[in-house]
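U., I forgot to send this yesterday:
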Amino acid sequence: MPPKRGLVINAGVVDLDRQKLLLGCVLMFLIGLPFALNLVPPNQSVGLHTHWALTTPELWLRANSFAGWAFIGAAALGVTIVRFRPDLAESWGVLVFIGLAVAALVVTFLYLGLFT
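Result:
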């Protein structure tokens, strides 16, 4: 049997599904970071565009900062899943990633609901 191809972690091999989940988490982190740090100014192109968030620039920054932190948290949870529950990452990698992204959005909209 040929050796498995993949990323080497802790002298083991991470299969492609886990690699995809890790890559997705890195991208989620990189997308969330500028929003969390308020580096993206209010605009009509990217970010949350809810009625509440668009009322003032301060609210836009607040809403998008929360969303950025939610996505960073989801990315951290995804990496934790890969590390401590590799069976989930191997079997459900893409669905785990989608679930984490949806969870970050749901938490963000629940947060926004507190102010509407």
